Amino acid sequence: MGEAKRRRQTGERSPLAHKQKKQRLLAASLSVVALIAVVFGVYWLSNPKLMKPSSLPTAEGRSAFPAEQDGLGVSIGDDDAPLVVREFADYQCPACADFSSTIERLKAEYIDSGQVRLVFFDLPLRQHANAIPAAEAARCAEDQDGWWEMHKTLFEKQSDWSGADSPDEIFLDYAESQGLDTRRFRRCMSGDIHRDEIDESHNLARDLRITSTPTVLVDNIPLTRTNWAQLSAIVDRELSDRDDGTDQ
């Protein structure tokens, strides 16, 4: 009796079929392991309690940030806060828009309680045609104590204005929805009143060799990952060091 015929009659699998089954089981097992690794990795990166202090960046070897230049940015929070977080960003930058929710959480958990002061520096990139008008809109809103709301709106609605030929009317609508004086806001925008400040902020970034957005510093410690886990872990460590009198 032929071998193939015998296997058909007995129901026995051929060596090739058996090998293929083992390969399928191995592939399925590897897929499960990979999925578990991805889930664990995401959880680890998003949970600051799992980040070891030794894995966090430090200020070692870095010069102190020129704090006298903070006036070139927009500052929110207690002037006497023990820690300063500085962000260099572009309102038309998608990664900056993604990171904005992290800054909102920083404000809720650390800035509003007086532990951290935020300084936001404009770094409009050349490839983003509407980045400078957006920065001007935020600064014109600041003249009426509306910077934070405009700042949030510009990032939240980035897709609505980033491709506009002339976004000023869109920004005017945002100002109106905030209850700002729209005539004053329009004059500010049309007069480029804050253009020099934006240029000076951009020049500071150049002098510090900061070229990408967002670049975030906790005092003078640069984030290597722009996420909440690393930001909050560094902030907690630095605040603890200051409480212990072991400022780095």
From TrEMBL:
Annotated keywords: Disulfide bond, Isomerase, Membrane, Oxidoreductase, Redox-active center, Signal, Transmembrane, Transmembrane helix
Ranges annotated as spanning the membrane: 25-45
Thioredoxin domain: residues covered: 45-240
SUPFAM superfamilies: Thioredoxin-like
InterPro entries: Thioredoxin-like_fold (IPR012336), Thioredoxin-like_sf (IPR036249), Thioredoxin_domain (IPR013766)
GO molecular function annotations of the record: isomerase activity; oxidoreductase activity
Family statement drawn from the similarity comment of this UniProt entry: Belongs to the thioredoxin family. DsbA subfamily.
Name the UniProt record assigns to this protein: Protein-disulfide isomerase
Organism from which the protein derives: Halospina denitrificans
